[in-house]
Automatic annotation (TrEMBL):
Record-given protein name: Probable tRNA sulfurtransferase
Species this protein is from: Clostridium ganghwense
Listed InterPro entries: Rossmann-like_a/b/a_fold, ThiI_AANH, ThiI_fer, ThiI_N, THUMP_dom, THUMP_ThiI, tRNA_STrfase, tRNA_sulfurtransferase_ThiI
Residues engaged in binding ATP: M177, L178, Y202, Y203, R259, G281, Q290
A molecular-function term among this protein's GO annotations: tRNA-uracil-4 sulfurtransferase activity
Biological pathway: Cofactor biosynthesis; thiamine diphosphate biosynthesis
NCBIfam families xrefs: tRNA uracil 4-sulfurtransferase ThiI
Length: 381
């Protein structure tokens, strides 16, 4: 009797036609990296993925965070012998501690001399005989005992819901503007979950923002890294740009002009590193700069798609995801970021593109952007 896990991947991967193999291969590689320090054996059997190990619990904890996996089942392998199957099915049912069940059998090995229906009926009858007060419910059972017969027999009822999404690095690259707040780590998680390779950029306003604020962003990037393996984090010195804006532009336009500089720098880094797109944690209407007009004015200086996966989400829902993915507790630590220090009292909520372009024309835009890029630090996490 051996314990193993059965890995089920997201149904979208089945729809990939000729590309299916490419997605499967990537997913398998990603599982391998997540388990690089654990001993296990990977077996593919007629499209099913099994992992054998004596550390199944640890493996489940890790594999359930690998993007592209929808469900994990804890499976017991026994001889393909009806008595052994019945015994194990009974154990599963006792462990589940519920009142209704059904047995579902799949027989991939047609040389086994009973049909699936007969096996289910026999195993079900055995369970009913040995546990008091339980009934079969085929429509809505509390527990489904799965029996699969291949070379051996596999019995399972315990399923762990995994993270879902698409295999990491199958859908292009993005550069996430990662602040220390609640939203942007969630946005990054959502992009990565759809298979998009994540790189991060943080604008640091030393000495107005402390080293601790920078460390907080690093910590957030490390939490995201837990889902995807490695992350490149670009730290851009942003103080000179902000000082120039404060000294030369109107107070109510500070935020929007600053956001245009963030966008320009992000696009330039992305261009240099062949990253297709930029992503932010903005949500429509959340703050003064996240109005439709504000987003239009920011995007005006972008030379590539800007993705905002949180655009239609409420703060409460974003916070729920932050808690679930483990970034919330770090995000709420009280270190200021550059935006909160330079916030105007009455920011423009409906900036006009032509007037913003005119206001910032007093700045040496290209030079400021280039200096920031030249002094950018890359941290490989
Ligand atoms: P968050 O919770 O992600 O900080 P927020 O609601 O505080 O977002 P803003 O401060 O307006 O919103 O920032 C909007 C988006 O701009 C952020 O989600 C993030 O993508 C990006 N951003 C803001 N400040 C920085 C920064 N210092 N470095 C990198 N990106 C930033
Ligand atoms: Mg913020």
């Amino acid at each position: 009797m051996r314990k193993l896990i059965l890995i089920k991947y997201a149904s979208e991967i089945f729809l990939k036609g000729l590309n299916k193999n490419k997605f499967e291969k990537k997913l398998q590689d990603n599982i391998k990296s997540a388990l690089s320090d654990i001993d296990y054996e990977f077996v593919k059997d007629q499209g099913r993925w099994f992992l054998y190990s004596n550390k199944v619990e640890e493996i489940i904890e890790r594999v359930k965070k690998v993007f592209g996996i929808s469900e994990i089942c804890l499976v017991t392998e026994v001889e393909a012998d009806l008595d052994k199957i019945k015994e194990q099915a009974l154990i599963e049912m006792k462990e589940s501690n519920v009142r209704t069940f059904k047995v579902e059998t799949k027989r991939a090995n047609k040389s086994f001399d009973m049909k699936s229906m007969e096996i289910s009926r026999d195993v079900g009858a055995y369970i009913l005989k040995n546990i008091e007060g339980i009934t079969v419910d085929v429509k809505n059972p509390q527990c489904v005992i799965n029996v699969e017969i291949r070379g051996k027999a596999y019995i399972y009822s315990k399923k762990v819901k995994a993270v879902g999404g698409m295999p990491y690095k199958t859908n292009g690259k993005t550069l996430l503007m990662l602040s220390g707040g609640i939203d942007s780590p969630v946005a990054g998680y959502m992009m990565a979950r759809r298979g998009v390779e994540l790189n991060c950029v943080y604008y640091h306003s030393h000495p107005y923002t402390s080293e601790r604020a920078k460390d907080k962003v690093k910590d957030l990037a490390k939490i995201l890294k837990g889902y995807i393996g490695t992350i490149d984090l670009y730290i851009v010195p942003f103080t000179d740009i902000q000082m120039e804006i404060i000294n030369k532009c109107r107070e109510d336009e500070l935020t929007i002009i600053m956001r245009r500089f963030m966008m320009r720098v992000a696009c330039q880094i992305a261009g240099n590193k062949e990253i297709h797109s930029v992503a932010t944690g903005e949500s429509i209407g959340q703050v003064a700069s996240q109005t439709m007009e504000g987003l239009v004015v920011s995007d005006d200086v972008s030379d590539r798609p800007v993705f905002r996966p949180l655009i239609s989400m409420d703060k409460e829902d974003i916070m729920d995801i932050a808690r679930k993915i483990g970034t919330y507790e770090t995000s709420i630590l009280p270190y200021e970021d550059c935006c909160t220090i330079f916030v105007p009292k009455h920011p423009k909520t409906k900036p006009r593109l032509d007037s913003i372009r005119k206001s910032e024309s007093v700045l040496e835009i290209d030079k400021l952007v280039q200096e920031a890029i030249d002094n950018t630090e890359l941290i490989k996490l």
